[in-house]
Amino acid sequence: MWPVCKKEFRQFFSSLTGMIALAVFLLLNGLFLFVFPDSNLLDFGYATLDKFFELAPWILTFLVPAITMRSFADEFRGGTYELLQTRPISQAQLSWGKYLGCLMIVALALVPTVLYAFSLQSLSAANAGIDVGGTIGSYIGLFMLAAVFTAIGVFCSSVTNNAVVAFIISAFACFLLYAGFNAISRIPGLASGADYYVEMLGIDFHYRSISRGVIELRDMIYFISIIVFFLLVTQRNLLKRLPR
Predict the structure, then answer these.
(1) Residue 101: Cβ-neighbour burial (10 angstroms; 0-12, 13-18, 19+)
(2) Are the C-beta atoms of residues 162 and 155 closer than 8 Å to each other?
(3) How many CB atoms lie within 10 A of CB 233?
(4) Residue 219 has pLDDT above 70, yes or no
(5) DSSP assignment of 81-129, as one string?
(6) Within 13 A of 150's CA, how many CA atoms are on the CB side?
(7) Fewer CB near the terminus (10 Å): N or C of the chain?
(8) What is the phi/psi pair of residue 188, to 5°?
(9) Rounded to an integer, what distance in angstroms lies between the CA atom of residue 116 and that of residue 40?
């Protein structure tokens, strides 16, 4: 599993595509948070990263599919998946190896954003710094959200040998699971109480819950369950490609 993970990590940075994807992610965050007037953190008058944690999931909706789209699609298209079957590695190890390799790349993209918190803390007044507990909770929620998006992206890459198609399907699936259930819960016919349970099915509900700084067991179980589900389905897709 670890050789697959390391291969996936190194392969992403073997071309300019990987560096450009991460640079665009950081550039967009920097522009929205420190340049554009409507979302500029320096214009709020108090130290908060709320705008970043509202914006980051939408950018990750496109960044994560860009990272995962080649994980299996290129293997199928180039014929190297058949070569992998000659190695002593199971479909489960292959799926988790690809997943962890992509997740390491996504985590690497999130690490520099911690500088935003240190910057705001240093610029704020002595007794008016950022909410450390809430910020840590928000970062945990953001990482778990990125982990779910990565599992979805790896799954979508396992259903096609076209990386562009995998990107489109993955971006749509991430968007749907993140915001779709929240939108459905606003239907007037669900206002009698069912709207709450429909909203609970979406990623946004649990992400916002952790972002308050309170890490509840139900939220962690939700994220882990979604990750395991998509990786299990990925394994089934790989089994279907084995020669009969």
Answers:
(1) buried
(2) no
(3) 15
(4) yes
(5) HHHHTTSS--HHHHHHHHHHHHHHHHHHHHGGGHHHHHHHHHHS-TT--
(6) 24
(7) C
(8) -55, -35
(9) 12
User: Based on the structure, what is the number of domains in the chain?
Assistant: 1
- Mean pLDDT over each residue of the chain, to the nearest integer: 83
pLDDT in tens, 49-97: 778 888 889 989 998 998 898 888 888 888 777 777 777 788 888 889 9
For residues 32 and 55, the answer to whether their CB atoms sit within 8 Å is yes
Q: What is the pLDDT of residue 129?
A: 64
* CA end-to-end span of the chain: 24
Rounded Cα gap, residues 94 and 85, in angstroms: 10
Question: Which of the pair, 166 or 120, is modelled with greater confidence?
Answer: 166
Domain that holds residue 42: 2-240
Cα distances (angstroms) measured from residue 6 to each of 57, 93, 117, 214:
26, 13, 30, 34
Share of the chain above pLDDT 70, in %: 90
Q: Which residues contact 93 (CB under 8 A, 6 or more apart)?
A: 1, 4
**Quick one: residue 45, left, alpha or beta (phi over 0 = left, psi -120 to 50 = alpha)?**
left
pTM for this model (two decimals): 0.89
